[in-house]
Amino acid sequence: MLRQRFSERLKDALKSRDQRAVGTVRLMMAALKDRDIAARGKGNTEGIAEDEILQMLQAMVKQRRESIEMFRAGAREDLVRQEQEEIAVIEGFMPRQLDEAEIERIAGELVTETGAASIKDMGRVMAVLKERFAGQMDFAKASAVVKRRLV
Predict the structure, then answer these.
(1) Chain segment 1-40, per-residue pLDDT in tens
(2) Distance set, CA 9 to CA 24, 54, 76 (Å)
(3) What is the widest separation between alpha-carbon atoms in the chain?
(4) Which domains are delineated in the chain?
């Protein structure tokens, strides 16, 4: 599904001569191809699954947000704008991101559901979060919320 959307978006961007979208989608497709090749080495001939593609996109967004911070510190607003445009293209393929309140609520429910009682159970809660909400939340924020609830 996402693979097909990448190809369709690339065609649309080429037709509309949207160079930022063309470049960003090509980067996404190259990253996907790299991960598919790595998966073949592990015996997966069909390529990575949708949830892994969403995790890849999330990592790409995170990387660009970190770059924005550095570019702002260096007073490079042109590069900040470029990174923001790339984030907009990437996020166009991702499901709606959960906000802080939703992450708090879901984390609380999963702590109860999994029977987590201490910080030692954090991995179990995070595994369920990643399984159910891949691509929908920032897991660094979710990790902090879970940790707060378990301490």
Answers:
(1) 889 999 999 999 999 999 999 999 999 999 999 999 998 8
(2) 10, 16, 29
(3) 55
(4) 2-91 (1.10.1510.10), 100-150 (1.10.10.410)
